[in-house]
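Q: I'm building a small set of examples for a reading group on sequence design. Run inverse folding on the following structure and report the sequence directly after it, with nothing in between.
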């Protein structure tokens, strides 16, 4: 009995924390030989939304180098589509977004970005990968390289989608409008992942239902009447009207949306005027609006229009000069993980890695994701969107103890651990595709 107990104890001590699929060592080797350099290059040379020409060209070149992939460029602008066929069977779409953000990097990484680029508004800005899209596109190439080697294990078609402009929540819609589901094989399943600094490395998050909130960018233009700052009665002050609108907007979520329904209305920018003693003739507000269902989304957007118009009326503006509210130019619906597909992919992950691979944590924000356009109900394509951890557990524990601050997404300090993020993203996506296309 003592011998049996000792043997059991020693086997538990020697057992790895997580299992891994048999091709995981090949992914590790590929990272050292190829993917690491690719990731560093992407990180050092980020590009802004709709301007990802260099990144797209590299992605197209890398997909062609895999062999057996039909590559099409300039889909929906700078998007790239690669089709890998391996006999009859289902079609799986694998998507990775590739754009960076207008931020000056301060991560301290030896390969930090120092590049600048002219944005679509004509302004030259610093650029960095402050949301991990460099991990996503590197892992997509890693997944393609693995699936090419493992063709004996699957049958069907994989459609690799390299998507632009996720940060402006418009790239997916533009690819759909450019015939993604008509020019190329329409998928039976669509899968994607996002790396996060808020999860521990070596862990995956995947739950059915709402994965990401809807998002709508809203512009409000207030047309006032300019005048001298010492004679405010001679004009209509757009700054005062803008301030009234900002404060009134706070009542939409607190007083018009049910307490158990999430919603966000954030004013991210307020621009007006140029000099101390001049009352401007125009003010501009920029908002982001988030919700988890279409009813709440409509209520918030309608409320913004109502508040803006009536603040104008309250201040005596004529009907043809009421504040203008612009919506629909940057928007995405809620991203919903299909329950059946999510269950299947999650089962594949636990079979390949062990049950401990799954990290369960309540949603911490109302982040949005335009992957939703690929899996809208009207298309009949179920989707599964999972999360890969990017921060070592020790650093997360230190942050909980108040000993350090974790770098947030969309922050100049953002960073993740490259190797575990890329290799797990690659391995997990390969596991998912192999399961969905297994013979």
């Amino acid at each position: 009995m003592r011998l049996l107990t000792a043997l059991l104890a020693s086997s538990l001590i020697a057992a790895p924390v997580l299992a891994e699929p048999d091709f995981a060592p090949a992914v590790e080797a590929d990272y050292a030989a190829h993917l690491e350099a690719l990731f560093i290059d992407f990180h050092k040379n980020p590009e802004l939304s709709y301007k990802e020409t260099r990144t797209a060209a590299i992605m197209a070149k890398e997909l062609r180098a895999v062999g057996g992939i039909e590559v099409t460029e300039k889909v929906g602008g700078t998007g790239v589509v690669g089709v890998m066929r391996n006999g009859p069977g289902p079609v799986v779409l694998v998507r990775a977004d590739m754009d960076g953000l207008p931020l000056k990097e301060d991560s301290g990484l030896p390969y930090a970005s120092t590049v600048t680029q002219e944005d679509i508004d004509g302004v030259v800005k610093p650029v960095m990968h402050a949301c991990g899209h460099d991990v996503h596109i590197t892992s997509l190439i890693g997944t393609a390289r693995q699936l090419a080697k493992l063709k004996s294990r699957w049958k069907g078609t994989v459609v690799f989608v390299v998507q632009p402009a996720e940060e402006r929540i418009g790239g997916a819609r533009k690819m759909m409008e450019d015939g993604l589901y008509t020019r190329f094989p329409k998928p039976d399943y669509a899968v994607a992942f996002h790396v996060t600094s808020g999860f521990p490395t070596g862990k995956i998050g995947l739950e059915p239902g709402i994965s990401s909130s809807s998002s709508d960018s809203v512009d409000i233009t207030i047309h006032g009447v300019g005048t001298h700052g010492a004679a405010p009665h001679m004009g209509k002050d757009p700054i005062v009207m803008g301030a009234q609108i900002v404060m009134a907007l706070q009542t939409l979520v607190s007083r018009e949306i049910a307490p158990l329904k999430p919603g966000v209305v954030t004013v991210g920018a307020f621009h007006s005027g140029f000099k101390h003693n001049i009352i401007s003739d125009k003010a501009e507000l920029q908002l982001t609006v988030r919700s988890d269902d279409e009813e709440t989304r409509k209520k918030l957007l309608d409320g913004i229009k109502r508040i803006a118009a009536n603040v104008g009326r309250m201040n005596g503006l004529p009907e043809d000069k009421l504040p203008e509210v612009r919506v629909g130019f940057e928007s995405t619906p809620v991203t919903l993980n299909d329950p059946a597909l999510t269950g299947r992919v999650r089962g594949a992950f636990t079979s390949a890695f062990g049950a401990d691979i799954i990290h369960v944590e309540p949603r911490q924000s109302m982040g949005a994701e335009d992957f939703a356009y690929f899996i809208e109900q009207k298309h009949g394509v179920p989707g599964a969107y999972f999360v890969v951890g990017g921060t070592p557990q020790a650093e997360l524990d230190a942050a909980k103890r108040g000993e350090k601050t974790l770098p947030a997404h969309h922050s100049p300090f953002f960073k993740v651990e490259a190797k575990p993020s890329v290799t797990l993203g690659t391995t997990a996506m390969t596991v998912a595709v192999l399961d969905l296309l297994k013979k």
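DSSP finds eleven helices and 18 strands in the chain.
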